[in-house]
User: What shape does this take?
Amino acid sequence: MNVLLVGPDFEENLSVRYLISSLRAAGHEATFAAFDGPKDADQVLGTIGGADLVGLSMCFQARAREFIALARAMKAARPDLGIVAGGHYASCAARDLLAHHPEIDLVVLHEGERTLAEIADLAALSCERLASIRGIAYREGTEVRMTAPRPTVQDLDTLPLPDRSGRVRTQAGVPVAYLLGSRGCIGSCTYCCITTLHRLAPGKSFRRRSPERVADEMAALYRERGIRQFVFHDDNFLVPSPARNHERFEALAKALESRGVRDIGLVIKCRPQDADASVLRRLRDMGLLRIFFGVETGTEAGLRCLNRKHTVADSERTLDLCKSLGISAQFTIMVFHPDATMATVRDDIAFMRRHADQALNFCRAEIYAGTPLEQRMIAEGRARGDYLARVYSFGDPSVELLCNLWRRIFGPRCTDSQGILNLSIGMNYRAAVINRFYRRPGAQALAARIEAFCREVNTDSLDRFEALVEACAGREDLSDPAAEKAVRDIACDEADSRGVLEPEARAIIRAIDAFATAARTTNRPRKPNADAVPRTLGFPAAVLLAAGLACSDTEMSEMAPPPLDAGPSYLRPDAASEGAVKSDVGRDEPIMSEIDALPLDLRRDEPIMSETDAKPLDLRRDEPIMSEIDAIPLDLRRDEPIMSEIDAIPLDADKDATHKG
Ligand code: B12
Ligand code: SF4
Assistant: This one.
């Protein structure tokens, strides 16, 4: 069968690449169509002609509507085409997707390698045949059926390595590849869909590949594609045992050494409580240049709410440790979570200020489908919206006001993929790459310039956000004209400062590109496994440049999640060239209407969608910053029920009734 896989094309999309190699190993043809946003829809539609089956990789809930619209267009063009969805969001919202969207024929739950190959083995997607395949949800008439769950892949070493065809990515001119040393997670954070995803499949959730197989993959990438930076997407690169971490990394170091893999850079993610000085030191010696820490909140109350199993002291200690070891660190703080108060928001700001020289961002904890947080918010009557996007209300009305204004005023800065904080995080990562890989004149100065700029962006963001916090303190609305004016001024100052910072960011990015290009063209080629490997880039980049394989830095770093009730403009991976996101706030406009400040329930008898709503945002510049319509979550504007019967079934009940029954 010819299977067309459709998904985002960021950071070598391992979800899809693992599926491609498994399908091919099972004797099928598999091709990939990049779908990074609605702009790619026509191109993807143009590729369905030769496909027998389409697989949609629906990992991100924020993009659910885009994938559904694409599936609908595919079915309209080719009603005979089978459409399978998979990935985090599709798995966690399978029942709702199938109940409400006939354009999706079935959903593969959890890991897809074996299940998709079995589906491709079927000549037709008849219910009779589908019933025999484990780990799927499908529709029979109007009923959604779930087959027996498929256990997790116990031995990850048995999976074919992900397909690596296509261009080589670079960061600051250094070829980079993304890979996995493990799957699953040892945490159980309330907001995270990983917790839910892994409940869908019996068997061990957290599994690790052997160090030898990881080293084999790295060595192949090193030799065949000139890769020098390895970004591990493992949720827990470290486990909570220094002894076990040392044992694993010694084995990996030995395996890499024996395969001639030297002078590399490593990027990992881990939980703060698992990072220990001796382990980080060992990893730094192996090339560790950057860690994404799951700090998430700077308060004990926030940690409890999110069920993070660490303390604020753990986060402080590990961030400080990174500083002292010269390892670049990044973290995101969810200042808005269901138990947030003005006090926790202030404490979070204080935490970020203490670490403002590291890469950071701040956001709202989103509620993803099927998560414990979603269940809690529904049970407490605080959730609005539906399976596509839910938002919650805060206990403290000042926090509600603050969060609404943060979204409106700080969205372009914090959650837009090209917002200044995300740009700053990306640049900060490149500074770490430059520090690790380049000894050319100017390298240190460039890295220092980037780091200073990131500090400036962080401090500027925290100052402005703090001003907004104080303007909202003790208020439920902006009915007081003085308060409204204060907020309007903050909004205008914020936009003005972005207007200064964004061109500066683009100038620095141009300087990084020029630096990387100069390094590629002036270094003489060297063998990658030469005995004395220089820290400057030699052989790989030159060869790649010659072969035309390398592409410039367009990858996304770990961003703050976009608000689920925001439009697609919050995910604009291709917007780098578009320039600054314009603010639609004017100094003379009202910031928030009276109605905005009312709890949503009081607005039930108001129009849900007006003509104005349908207009693009840019046409509404002369409107108040937050109108009554703006304040209604996007989902409430459709004519679908807010909570279907299926929505109301607790997830555990689904699991018991279908999987175990
Ligand atoms: C790498 C990664 C990224 C990469 C890109 C990944 C990609 N595939 O495009 C980058 C850094 C760009 C990224 C960005 C974002 N990410 Co991200 N990311 C991850 C991460 C760490 C690993 C994903 C991965 O590669 N896994 C390895 C593969 C092999 O496993 P898999 O993805 O589960 O795929 C298997 C199955 O799901 C299934 N499957 C998947 N697709 C399909 C399709 C079909 C047809 C079938 C049959 C099966 C199937 O089979 C696969 C093989 O077994 C996950 C966390 C995690 N542990 O999964 C978060 C995660 C997916 N990201 C998340 C989020 C929120 C985002 C962002 C929105 C913001 C942010 N915080 O970073 C952005 C949005 C990007 C965008 N504009 O669309 C959330 C998703 C939550 C949700 N339900 O929406 C996750 C789960 C992190 C988390 N714990 O919250 N991300
Ligand atoms: S947030 Fe990270 S540590 Fe927590 S469950 Fe999700 S992947 Fe695991």
Summary: The pocket of iron/sulfur cluster (ligand 2) is lined by residues 185, 187-189, 192, 194-195, 235, 271, 294 (CB under 6 Å). DSSP finds 23 helices and 18 strands in the chain.
